[in-house]
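Need a sequence for this fold. Nothing fancy.
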């Protein structure tokens, strides 16, 4: 075997790539194969029920299956930004939670740099981080205190964390002088910048961005987008981006998948997706046309 090594979080990860001059099971930054996740919930009815019917319905508790993620497969190469577009409730966030080990798949497998997220979950968590549209903080602590607390979980010293946090926040257009203000005093957009900085402080090799620019003003959105491109360029990180912003997806993503009812219904580059979608009145197609079709 020829061993290629990648340094991340203070250790070397070795990949077996070639055997007898042939590539065997090439390592992708992220590989999702046939993943399925279903949920069961009490079946809802649109009928107006009488009181005794509600009591009977409560004890019967008929269940229905929600197919949140249904037989999804994807592969993301090292240094690639992979976009996932879909309406609310289509399965985007559930897929992200499966990759981050917050949920276990019912079927299929997920590998991050060759490691299974179920059997090697602790190892996988060391090389990934996530930005959520609903990021949580200790609201009575400052942004600096929140960031230092989060990085200490990864073994990063408070001094180093504060230095890196200040640099990243300034790059995102966050005034470093406000790092000592309580989180509850910051605007929604500023809190989102802190969430992005928190994910980047650990130098993740897999970065999962779940609608990261939601709530940001146009300038802040451009700052974040530029920083995402910079991370990909300088670190060769694997980035998965979910978004509703078609312009953002077209600007950042190398490839895009469109998800609907838990399934991928289209996948390819922006040019490939547009080319495969009929245009109206002969006008040039757009990514929005692909999404709506």
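Here you go.
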């Amino acid at each position: 075997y020829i061993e290629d090594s990648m340094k991340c979080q203070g250790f070397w990860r070795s990949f077996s790539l070639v055997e007898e001059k042939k590539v065997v099971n090439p390592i992708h930054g992220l590989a999702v194969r046939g993943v399925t996740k279903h949920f069961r919930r009490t079946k809802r009815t649109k009928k107006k029920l009488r009181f005794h019917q509600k009591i009977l319905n409560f004890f019967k508790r008929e269940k229905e299956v929600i197919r949140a993620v249904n037989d999804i497969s994807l592969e993301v190469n090292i240094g690639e930004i992979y976009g996932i577009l879909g309406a609310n409730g289509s399965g985007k966030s559930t897929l992200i939670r499966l990759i981050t080990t917050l949920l276990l798949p019912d079927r299929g497998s997920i590998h991050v740099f060759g490691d299974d997220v179920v059997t090697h979950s602790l190892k996988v968590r060391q090389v990934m981080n996530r930005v959520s549209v609903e990021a949580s903080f200790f609201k009575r602590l400052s942004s600096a205190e929140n960031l230092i607390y989060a990085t200490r979980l990864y073994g990063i010293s408070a001094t180093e964390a504060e230095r890196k946090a200040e640099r990243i926040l300034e790059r995102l257009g966050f005034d470093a002088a406000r790092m000592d203000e309580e989180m509850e005093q910051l605007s929604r957009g500023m809190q989102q910048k802190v969430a992005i900085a928190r994910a980047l402080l650990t130098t993740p090799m897999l970065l999962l961005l779940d609608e990261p620019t939601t709530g940001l003003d146009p300038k802040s959105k451009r700052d974040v987008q530029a920083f995402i491109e910079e991370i990909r360029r300088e670190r060769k990180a694997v980035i998965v981006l979910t978004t509703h912003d078609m312009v953002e997806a077209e600007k950042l993503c190398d490839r895009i998948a469109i998800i609907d009812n838990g399934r991928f219904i289209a996948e390819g580059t922006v040019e490939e997706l547009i080319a495969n979608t009929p245009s109206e009145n002969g006008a040039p197609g757009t990514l929005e046309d692909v999404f709506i079709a």
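For context: The chain has a mean pLDDT of 83.
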